[in-house]
Amino acid sequence: SLVVLFGATAGAYGAKLGSDERELILLVWQVVDLPGKKVGSLHKSLVKADNLELSDQCREVSGLTPEGLGKAEPLDRVLQQFIQLVSSDLKVLGRSSYTLCSDGQLLIRQVLHPETSKKNFLLSDCFYSFYDLRKEFHTCYPSSAAVKDQTIKTMAEYLGLGTDETEEDFGVWQVKTMVAIIFSMLSESCNHIFTEPETVKYKYETGPCLILLFFFFFLFLCSSKSETVDNETVIRARGLPWQSSDQDIARFFKGLNIAKGGVALCLNAQGRRNGEALVRFVNSEQRDLALERHKHHMGSRYIEVYKATGEEFLKIAGGTSNEVAQFLSKENQVIIRMRGLPFTATQEDVLGFLGPECPVTGGKEGLLFVKYPDGRPTGDAFVLFSCEEYAQNALKKHKEILGKRYIELFRSTAAEVQQVVLNRYMSTPLIPTLPTPIIPVIPPPYTIATGSIRDCVRLRGLPYTAGIDDILEFMGDATADIKPHGVHMVLNQQGRPSGDAFIQMKSADKAFMVAQKCHKKMMKDRYVEVFQCSGEEMNFVLMGGTLNRSGLSPPPCKLPCLSPPAYAAFQTAAVIPAEAALYQPQALLPAARTPQASAAAPPTVTYYPAQAAQLYMNYTAYYPSPPVSPTTVGYIAAPPGAVAAAATATHTPILPQPGALVRMQGLPYNTGMKEILSFFQGYQYAPDDYNGLIQLSDQARSVLQAPKEWVCL
């Protein structure tokens, strides 16, 4: 038997059903006895959604109203009634088993499965197998329109059936017409047989996928990446919570069939998750449905979904070694990643830390320590558990102490194991997510605003956890009026958020409107004050000054008595990249100049990232404005000739490339060079002869060589 099923949501209809995350509001169904060509009763049930607001298209097409839906049952009860009524109709027809039949894939895959997953209740087994009437119709009538162009109405017109939808209630006509189409397909002229239903996977299968095993084999034989993954089956998901696992991503795509081991979490050069993942589906049809979930939500965050290539997937998920392959050979295991292990930790130490309540699969064989190419431990390890219960017990030990260090534990994936281990063995990551060192560029295209025009706004009282996305959401429609690279987060002298931010608007009028509209508007659990200000006032605060009711207090670098010694490698407009330094030491700030010195000053060579977070002086982090992603990191490269010309014109030593400065605070007073080099073990630092290329005054050199703080190249 078939159960012909039709449904509608409170939002989009037709080809866009389910693409807007709107809830189900209508189910209509009827049992069809195929051998006897009989039908059961037709049932129509309204569904009470959490949000009763209906789109204009829904109101027009369905004729439903929020008042009517408010009296309906919620989805879980409607589905229980569905199972009971179908069973009752089957008994009347003398049948016992059935398979669903719907108009296309969307109702089952894009509506029912995602919605029930978000509402945390399980669907009956009958919803994991169904017939797609459009595909069955095209198989029976090959000369009809393509599957993607079929609708109930076009199929009825092809068969010469009545197509006046106004004769019946919305949903009733659709089910009756689908039943008539099925009976036509069962006629002697066609004698169609329903044999191969569509299936929905019950759960995501972890472990290395088959295509990667072939990939490794070809690499061994040919030493080239001759094996490929179909480009039409891979997507890139961006904006994921950093703690999300492969199972969380599979749940986000619930209803769609992901290939075995098809979730690859992307990592940055430090081996940490960067909020992106590559997902490989079983075919292009599933991939196209996944693209329709662009900007759907995972918790409170929306997830961006884009097309990706098979080559990108292989680069992320394809790295392996014999040790990793042996570790991952045990299937259906839960993988946990441990981070922050003492470098002296042994397998016995880790097993003792986990304890008997979470036994590791295979004992020591279920542990994989990540090491650098020279064999030194990185402090990371992966652990296998045979079931979810043991893994959950292990996760409860998150941030417990082993030795003198607290240990972080996270869910992980086979692709992450491959990627982390191979990245440690290689000199460069598979897909670098951090750029190459900064190259001098002349001149910087983005500068801090100046002037007395009040075209800026100041946000005060931001939550300390607020980021660029929170501010843009707080601004609402006004984000369209923000200047490029016009959002400036203010940090305190410890490099932490101060609760303030400045935003450069396109005009003073726009700034005034934002201040009026957003003042004391809530962000998370705090209200935020919004004031209109000028570029000059913003500049003073960003450079370390204060702005209050008493007026402006200039930053320390503007006070002659506090001006630090000159530092030749960085001039006034110089910018240190956020990836290279949390903040500059005072010894790196520019000296106060006399007018004569300023007049004779050579052109400035500026270091800056073009689309990345930046830090000016000690106080401010700069983020790109939309549409540039806040997580995007990129640099503008200057041609070598421009660098040489700048060096010749200025007669000023330039930091050798590559090279970047970091500042260390809180060192023990007896710290020596050996301890510092040991602290940076595993990282490349500049050779000693770099020191001779930086001209320092005696005062500056004394600061740099003080035992409390070090500045390292």
UniProtKB/TrEMBL annotation:
Residues 233-310, 334-414 form the RRM domain. InterPro entries: ESRP, Nucleotide-bd_a/b_plait_sf, RBD_domain_sf, RNaseH-like_sf, RNaseH_sf, RRM_dom. One of its GO terms (molecular function) is RNA binding. GO terms for biological process: mRNA processing; RNA splicing. Signal peptide: none annotated. GO terms for cellular component: nucleus. Gene3D superfamilies: 3.30.70.330, Ribonuclease H-like superfamily/Ribonuclease H. Keywords: mRNA processing, mRNA splicing, Nucleus, Repeat, RNA-binding. It is found in: Nucleus. Its main location: nucleus. Belongs to the ESRP family. This is Epithelial splicing regulatory protein 2.
